[in-house]
């Protein structure tokens, strides 16, 4: 005889509000009558070792009832009431409930783990982003972790990079060195015109040197008178004008003129304590443009700021436009360097014997007016000639052997 089919009915677990459950004992408070101070807390319950082992055996049944009993009224039912009777194909096997990361706050509401520690929702909540806790007191209002600083803000607070600092300090160092160099150069320019000895001592030493030269190279007395007269005019503390000595070099005395004038310029250097004298040969640049040649002459004569003697060779090769530079440096009152001796040398196509019996000043004036009058007005030529040809001197030729001995170069 076949066994009769026994209908089984799943009974719902007793909930907190189910009136069929037995009332709590006298020593235990009902969840409805608990005080507000104990809200959200599990009732105090102490288990023995036997109770704990018994709980493990009945974990699938009694533990769930215990969870439903101690959970607050606000918690949703773990198992909703099922319609009775159940259909035959109803699946009662446990299913895993999927959840997302946003549901982490309600993990305790799921009965998926057998080791979950159910705690009341009304208890202390975890720190939220909008209500952070301080590390020490746990009070709201202060954040445990500081806000992340933007990259640009971090760089601005960090300061300049090492490369920038190195570049800055290098620039400052170079500026200091350049400033120091300019200060040193200015001091040299200022000290160059300051005499290391008095003017009287300079003049005395210069005359001694000239006497030595006179003994080496024989020249007429007129030559030395003209020379000493011009040098005497600048041997004062504040001379009124520079000494301009136009040297006339005949055909047969050009080597002697070069050697003699260089010897005199060296004597001036020795007397004033200078290291060198200014020298320029016009023939080396006679094919350049007159304006360029004038600029070259200007640069050369600027060297009188550091010395007291200048020698300009072959002024007859200077065009009239470039010769105007002498108007500034040889002026009677407005010359920039007045305590200086300038030796313009003019080479003429005459022999010494032909010029020795003529008025030298008239001969030189006519020659320069002929050369510079091509490109300059007569008044401009007169202004230049009057400044550089006021005291011309004629050089007497010396034997070539003697010249080569005194001036080997």
From TrEMBL:
The chain crosses the membrane at residues 163-183. GO terms for biological process: membrane organization. Residues 1-146 are annotated as: Disordered. Residues 233-369 form the Torsin-1A-interacting protein 1/2 AAA+ activator domain. One of its GO terms (cellular component) is membrane. Residues 53-65 have a biased composition (Acidic residues). Residues 189-216 form a coiled coil. Residues 1-10, 66-76 have a biased composition (Basic and acidic residues). Keywords: Coiled coil, Membrane, Transmembrane, Transmembrane helix. GO terms for molecular function: ATPase activator activity. InterPro entries: TOIP1/2 (IPR008662), TOIP1/2_C (IPR046753). The keyword Coiled coil applies. Residues 110-126 have a biased composition (Low complexity). This is Torsin-1A-interacting protein 1-like. It comes from Homarus americanus. The lineage of its organism: Eukaryota, Metazoa, Ecdysozoa, Arthropoda, Crustacea.
